Amino acid sequence: MKNTFRLLMLAVVLSFLGLHQLLAQTPSTGQSPASSAPMALSLQQAIDYALQNKSTLQSQRLNEQIASARVNEVKASGLPQINIGAA
Asked: Chain centroid to CA 19: how far?
């Protein structure tokens, strides 16, 4: 649990740094300023954006859902089973 929290915080910080660099870039001369204007975000909005869009976090969330489904499957296999078939 402690390692998961540390990993999550590291991912947030790294994502924020990457987002910060992305937002700090100035548009090139061929682009219109309106289409490449950086988004003005508060710190909390940037963290929320990073958490929602970080692919490794999304895959980790899916892995947790898969693991939870497998646990439920194993629990269900221990429950009484009723089989109805035509004889």
From this structure: 15
